[in-house]
Amino acid sequence: MTATMTRPARTASTAPQGISLTLDGVTYRYGRSRTATTPAGLGPVDLRVQPGEFLCVVGPSGSGKSTLLSLLAGFLRPQTGEIRLGDTPLRGPDPRLTLVQQEPALFPWRTVAGNVAFGLERQRLPRAERTARVEDTLRLVGLEGYGPRRVHELSGGQRQRVSLARALAVQPQLLLLDEPFSALDDRTRTVLSDELLGIWWERKVTVVFVTHNLEEALALGQRVVALRGGEVVLDGPARELSVGQLRETLEE
Ligand SMILES: Nc1ncnc2c1ncn2[C@@H]1O[C@H](COP(=O)(O)OP(=O)(O)OP(=O)(O)O)[C@@H](O)[C@H]1O
């Protein structure tokens, strides 16, 4: 990650717009272990993410980042409290949100276009519209013309672009990203981070980006939330925070 990363000066397009995300007293505890007195997990967490906001979540290993994302993705249900997308309680995986994971989970038997089209198949779009949407999204992630290729022909960075395109093709209102660039080399990571900012700027989607990399969080996020021991220990605008301050808070 470099300090030179800048937000691209693009004009924002009209659609689709991001949605607000609200967590009210959300907890999730895994089964009580024999050694730990307090069961591991998350919460209680109160958080409100504004429509179109880019939030980065940081924290050391075991701080609850994945648990939080699993709750937001609807894979886990809060044991107490409530998560709302806009005004609606989240009750499980929701078509208004998509998740990009650390390792791109692509279908090797499908082409690049086939992978990107996957989520659209459930939307029952007319074929021509589906094809246009796939092409547009591939262009958006810098893979114009890659549609007919097979996944195994691609580099790690290109695969993660396909994964991002698949998540974006359905035009989510909330995009969840779980350490999406951590397996990539520094240069590819910087390029993709910059491109993600461009896409966010253009689409105005709400983003929750989980990373253990503090520099990355400050470079990408408008706002940074730090987790420690399953609790929010810091929440502030990225421009007012420093790596040292985050590190200090997380190590206390
Ligand atoms: N399936 C599970 N069963 C029991 N405990 C779990 C389970 N998953 C996570 N935990 C515990 O819950 C706590 C939070 O874990 P979580 O995976 O959310 O942290 P994390 O910040 O994502 O860590 P990492 O950066 O290593 O992925 C940890 O103490 C972890 O050991």
Characterization of the model:
The chain folds into 2 domains: 17-30 and 39-96 and 173-252, Rossmann fold (3-Layer(aba) Sandwich), CATH 3.40.50.300; 104-171, no CATH class. Helix content is 32%, strand content 23%. The chain is built from 7 helices and 10 strands. It has a 6-stranded mixed beta sheet with strand order 6-7-8-3-9-10, sandwiched between helices. Strands 2-1-4-5 form a 4-stranded antiparallel beta sheet, with helices on one face. The two termini are 25 Å apart. Bound molecules: adenosine-5'-triphosphate. The site of adenosine-5'-triphosphate has 12 residues, from α1. Adenosine-5'-triphosphate binds at residues 30, 40-41, 59, 61-67, 212. Keywords: ATP-binding, Nucleotide-binding, Transport. InterPro entries: AAA+_ATPase, ABC_transporter-like_ATP-bd, ABC_transporter-like_CS, ABC_transporter_ATP-bind, P-loop_NTPase. Pfam families: ABC_tran. It comes from Deinococcus aerius.
